[in-house]
Amino acid sequence: MHRRILTTVVAVALLAMAAPAGAHHREGPCDIHWRDGGSEEIRRDVRRLILCAWDRFRPGHGGPRRALEVARCESGFWPWAVGGSNLGVFQHQARYWPRRFELLVERNPLRASWELSPSALDARTNVIVTALYVRRFGWSAWACA
Asked: Are 122 and 131 in contact (CB under 8 A)?
C-alpha cells in the first residue's frame, strides 16, 4: 500500500515538473497575470506590478507612492518605453542595465526560482531590478526621483 502511494506521489511530481508553464505564468515574485486589453489595462497591470514589488522587497526610500510617481514620470507606466538609450518602466540606461541585472539578480541566491528575463523591456524584470536597486542604493540614478 505504501509503495503504491509513494509511486503515485513521485509520478505526480514528475508530471508537474515536466508540464510547460502557461504563456502568462512565470514563477517567482510578482507574477502578475497580464490582462488582455489596450494600453490602459497594460498601464494598470504595471502599477499593480510596482505595488507588488514594493510590498515584496520593501525598498523604502519613499515607498510605493514614490515608485509610482517615478514610473509615471519616466515611462507613463509603459513597459516598452524607449527614450534615447533609456529602457522600460523605470528607464534604466542601456549601458548600465547588464551590470545592474547581474549584480541584483544573477548574484541573488533566490534568483533560481524567479524566472526573470534579462531584458530591461520586460516589465516584471525592470520593476524588480529597480526595487532591488533602490533598496540598496536609493533613487539617485533617476532624474524623476
From this structure: no
Burial of 64 (0-12, 13-18, 19+ CB in 10 A): middle
Q: Are the CB atoms for 139 and 63 separated by under 8 Å?
A: no
Q: What span, in angstroms and rounded, lies between the C-alpha atoms of 5 and 1?
A: 6
How far apart are the C-alpha atoms of 138 and 145, rounded to whole Å?
10
Q: Stretch 36-58: mean pLDDT, rounded?
A: 92
pTM of the model: 0.78
DSSP code of residue 93: E
Residues of 16-47 as b/e, b for ≥16 C-beta within 10 angstroms?
eeeeeeeeeebeebbebebeeeeeeebbebbb
